[in-house]
Amino acid sequence: MASKVIHAIYNDDDILLQAVKKVRNEHYHIEEIYTPFHIHGLDKAMGLADTRIAITSFLYGLVGLIFSVVMMNFIMIDDWPQNIGGKPSFSYIENMPAFVPIMFELTVYFAAHLMVITFYLRSKIWPFKKAENPDLRTTDDHFLMVVDIGKHDINELTKFMHNTGIVEINVIDKDEDH
Amino acid sequence: MYTLTSKLKLFAIIFMVVGAIGIISGFLTTPSSIKEVKEMLDTNHDDSHNIGKTQNENHKNVIGSHDGNKEEAHDDEAHYEHVLQQMQNRPWAAIYVATFFFFIIVLGVLTFYAIQYASQAGWSPVLFRVMEGITAYLPIITAILFILLLLSGVFNMNHMFSWMNPDLVNPDSPDYDKIIAEKSGWLNVPFFLIRAAFYMLGWNLYRYLSRRNSIRDDNAEDNRWFKKNFKLSAGFLVFYIVTESMMSWDWIMSLDPHWYSTLYGWYIFAGMMVCGITVIALVTIVLKSQGYLEFVNDSHIHDLAKYMFGFSIFWTYLWFSQFMLIWYANIPEEVVYFVTRVEDFKLPFFGMVVMNFVFPVLLLMNSDYKRVNWFVVLTGIVILAGHYIDVFVMVIPATVGTSWFIGIPEIGSLLFLFGLFVYVVFTALTKAPLLVKNNPFIKESKQYRY
Question: Of A21, A37, A39, A167, which has the fewest Cβ atoms less than 10 A away?
């Protein structure tokens, strides 16, 4: 027997959030939730692990900072020193205040861009990729919760789901999906 | 309702007494004549020679009224006279720095409070009574500040504001200073004091009315008093940003009357906001640790810590903007400000940048750390110490010069005003319930979760 999932559709984010708590209380397994926008607190309600993107952001920022120091040292000190504003010093540290804006900008640049790329890689999305969401309405005004049936009784589960404020419910064979 | 424990009262009074002893001993140990200055400098002759040299250069830089071809002996006398004035300034400057430091804390809290009302913020009403408690210090600290300005301006008790010397604007005097004379339309004692009184009355009026409306709101049937406070706060913020800027020129920038920076008002503003928000966080954590403010949760502390973090970076941004432009352009009359600070105040000047920027950035960057109370307290204490030194480095180079030291008068003034702060603020907290009852956002604020 192929594994089956339930597609429960909601039309309100607060109701969805309540439903997530109820479903998890009954120890049913939520596979995924598709929403048109970010819902505050949904990750905590679903019991997802905390994001680690902040740590990567910090590390990328450090990379940008180091890159800018090395770059400005090469351009302005080693390769082609210039007399700007009467400051012809051949030392990085003595000219450092002039380089701070560049250090700042590249720190931000590296942190922001590499963070976005990391997010794309981690979420397995790239340009021209075919959309994965099972119902087009989740890009408009509906919210879809995928609940794994597993060893539970289908009727009992659908009955329970009806009490969580759904507007529509479908039982889907997982194999068809792929 | 909060009750003031006798232990805390005693704590505050001990601080005030110890601080007062420090202040008085500061005044008693200043030299009263040139002879005493010479004796003091002779006791460590090797140093005094060096100090004398840089002192003289500073004097020329700052006042700029000396002729280069004056006789050696006369120059020497003038130099000792100058050192005497600087040493006599020291206890005054010590109180002035500490008073200004506490003043920016309190005015920063008042501004933050006004911003919460004007923006109708939903997270912060649970903290309103804490903020109102802190701003109860405003009338007292502005009164002390006004008395200090009065003693400098009218009674000539010290030489902190060099432009107050009438010789500098008298064309017949040998000390005539054309630059200061041309600024005398703004920088003259009567107008200076009238402006000071005007700013202080405006701020105190807002503090009085908003507190009164907030208390009345507790028993109101509708949102009448809340709406009144909303309008009042929006008006205050307009008044504040103009007067705050002028206050920073008058009370701090005019200490170096030849020098000016168009960024100064913003720079003081940034320091003011950091200090104010840090003190809100510290007082809240203290009250929570005593079992009060049970409705304040980690998310409120988290938000305050975010503001501490953000405004610390904002402060650094303005500090650096001012520094880099002047450093790069290297125009003599501008750069003199930083030359004196980098040469004679190297450790406090750069040390406070580390304390006010590197410390909060590294300690408060992590989201989880912003919820750990002792972490916020630790960072808060470092930030406050850093901003005390910031004010110190703004005031002292022009008033005390190279005779500076953070010793008994400085710490005494700080302890005295801290004791008074604790006494006044925690007494004010007992006057009203710690939760505003009828604020339309109170439910949202209590349930606030990040």
Answer: A37
Distance from CA of B192 to the nearest CA of A (A): 36
CB < 8 Å to B449, chain A: 41
Q: How far is A68 from chain B (nearest CA, A)?
A: 18
Q: What is the pTM of this model?
A: 0.87
Instruction: Report how many domains make up chain A.
Output: 2
Q: For chain B, first and last CA: distance in Å?
A: 27
Which chain B residue has its CA at the smallest distance from A54's CA? Answer: B366
Residues of A in contact with B329 (CB under 8 A): 85
**Whether residue A22 sits in one domain with residue A59:** no
Query: A152: which 2 tokens?
Result: 């539970």
Identify whether residues A69 and A29 lie together within a single domain: no
> What are the C-alpha distances in Å from B104 to residues A66, B134, B235?
37, 12, 20
Q: How many CB pairs under 8 A join A and B?
A: 20
Per-residue pLDDT of chain A (178 residues; tens, 9 = 90+): 457 888 999 999 899 999 999 899 888 889 889 999 999 889 888 988 888 898 999 999 999 999 999 999 999 999 988 888 777 778 898 889 999 999 999 999 999 999 999 999 998 888 888 888 888 889 999 999 998 888 888 888 888 888 888 898 888 887 654 4
A86 at the B interface (CB within 8 A)? yes
Domain that holds residue A155: 4-36+141-177
- Domain span at residue B39? 6-446
A85 interfacial to chain B (CB closer than 8 Å): yes
- For B170-205, write each residue's pLDDT tens digit: 888 888 998 999 999 999 999 999 999 999 999 999
Residue A171 sits in a domain whose CATH number is 3.30.70.260
Residue A43 in any domain: the answer is no
Interface of B with A (CB under 8 A): 320, 323-324, 327-330, 365-367, 449
Reduce the DSSP state of residue A148 to 3 states and report it.
strand
Judge whether A58 lies within some domain.
yes
Say yes or no: A75 and A25 in one domain.
no
Q: How far apart are CA B109 and CA B130, in angstroms?
A: 10
Alpha-carbon distance values, B48 to B83, B429, B446 (Å): 11, 51, 61
A41 touches chain B (CB under 8 A): yes
CB pair distance less than 8 Å for A98 and B367: no
Domain count across chain B: 1
Burial class (CB in 10 A: 0-12, 13-18, 19+), A53: middle
